[in-house]
Write a structure and sequence with these properties.
Helices cover 37% and strands 19% of the residues. The chain is an alpha+beta fold. Strands 2-11-10-3-9 form a 5-stranded mixed sheet. Helix 13 (456-467) packs antiparallel against helix 14, helix 15 (494-503) crosses helix 23 (607-616) and helix 20 (564-573) packs across helix 21. The chain is globular and about 95 Å long. The structure holds 2-(butylsulfanyl)adenosine.
Length: 708
Amino acid sequence: MTGTDTPDVSQLTQAEAAAELPGLIAALEAANTAYHTLDAPEISDAEYDRLKRRLAEIEARFPALARPDSPTRKIGAAVAEGFGKVTHEVRMLSLENGFSDEDVTDFDARVRSYLGLSPDAPLPCTAEPKIDGLSLSLRYERGVLVQAATRGDGEVGENVTENARTIADIPQRLTGAPDLLEVRGEVYMSHADFAALNARQAERGEKPFANPRNAAAGSLRQLDARITAARPLRFFAYAWGALSEPLSDTQMGAINQLKTLGFQVNPLTVLCDGPQDLLAQYRAIEQARASLGYDIDGVVYKVNDLGLQRRLGFRSTTPRWAIAHKFPAELAWTRLERIEIQVGRTGALSPVARLAPVTVGGVVVSNATLHNEDYIAGRDSKGAPIRGGKDIREGDWVQVYRAGDVIPKVADVDLSRRSADAQPYEFPHKCPECGSDAIREEGDAVRRCTGGLICPAQAVEKLKHFVSRGAFDIEGLGAKQVEAFYRDGWIREPADIFTLQQRFGSGLQQLKNREGWGPKSAQNLFDAIEDKRKIPLARFIFALGLRHVGDSTATLLAHQFGTWERLAKVVEEADNFQGPAWEELLAIDGVGETTARSLIASLNHSADAQAVKNLLQWVTPEPAQPRAVADSEIAGLTVVFTGTLERMTRAEAKARAEALGAKVAGSVSAKTDILIAGPGAGSKAKKAAELGVRVIDEDAWLAIAGGT
Ligand code: IVH
């Protein structure tokens, strides 16, 4: 079979091909095991590639012979399961986006107001290209590269150390670095390397990558580091995580230090005086964009003074001291073939435009969101015209755009190309999936299916959300598997996942006979499910997929209530929208009335309530620790600020107190522990005195807050 006299695939009869196939597959599988599991490759890369190519050729010529679990289909999906997890010591954040000049001047004004800087005080910022790749965190201990991890969900990423070691821009050793140094930056692929890689892919009959970003991500996340090594990846350093000592006291200084240590830093990084200077640099980088030789999608501005960065701190997922000024989205015209309605996990009917495929910014687009029925009709949520009031009809020529990673959108309609018999789109008033009424509540832009869990679309979407990455994250149980299991009646609600094995008695036997599953993957799935019988409370709450409860709200709720039982009790007691339980919900910073009402509606009254009860028979949410800093003397206390603070703005003081674990209230009551009174304190100070509340001045506060 490996000899030079092997007949060309075009010469084979189907019977000959069928006879050859098992041997080919066995050889490839043995090579995979030798390489991945035993770390002892038995055949050369060239031989491996040759076997694989031959298998692909046979499958292409005789599709009936292609097996669902063929080694040709295994890259990608199988790969992700193999990486270990890494919990980032310092979270990997994303950036707030800005799109206009005004967003940049607003950023400057917001930072000043937070810090209490006057409009003419200097506030230098760096400007640098936003690289369109994927972020990577490199950990060096005593100058030696010990770990590389992808961003993942920001808290937990994938361990890609061996792959990162194959990237020439990433030093294996550093001299003169702090004992602990985590360097963060972007892995990317140049245009030239991307073109060459795609040419090679085509030669081998493999699928080309859509763009350099996908190629970089696909190359880095290869379980086989030899594949990564053969892909020309590059790396720009632009940030850092955990450190044993500071790199510098400015952003620019730190970047220069990274350069001295041997990292590639972007040569277009400059220090600017203020917003006008930043905008000038934005235009300069925009001009240079086409000739850089790699993709960028905007310009990132960062406050230069690291002391100020520290004071500004973070919101839930983004720093207050930086903003990404994105380039305008790319546009293209195409024909809207039809409008389809998708039903989401909260029952929302979302119209989707099916488009004649068109390339927008290097990616082929064939679907775009149409948001909701008002958007199609040409009006905003208040009834005011958008797009000059032009509606969107099936058959229209529409302009589509992509902004960053987000789903493509429809921006405009060309009325001159509309056919005379085009009819206005009639948005359905029945759910297309289950036939239930779809109603639109007052003030809601969205029409929703009232079918709840009897609606298969809602049930499936809820299940998909339940197993997704930020939620239960069950390996081997993705959107596709959930759809198939739902269709076959194996899983109808989350609890069913945890009874899958037991319900079938021989669950393993049944599962491994399904197409796409083998004994190993079936066992892995049951192990992965077992592994999630205990789950952090925040993930548990998020996984329920309740309206208005995203991951940051779920985290807030977990830290506030500590246990599921306590959360459920408070939500139950708040049922009449008044009283202490209702107040307690509203008092959580970040939980408003909408969220509180949604919790009550879904946990006390909907079909979700029963589904949660069922789930709790099989799953234990692990208690969350209150988000308090152990050594802070105000952790867990309620504090109130009054009067003028002279060395810190109110916004900063509030954020600081919260970061130290305190709750900041607006008025003094018997529950207040400390009143921080600056000069000019009036009625609040008086009330505090009456109630015997402890009162401290700004100096004492600064001592607690750690100065500035
Ligand atoms: S700074 C705490 N600088 O953009 C801030 N990010 O949209 C950390 N990115 O996750 C990020 N170029 O992957 C920073 N010059 C640059 C960047 C950059 C690209 C990516 C990064 C981040 C994402 C946020």
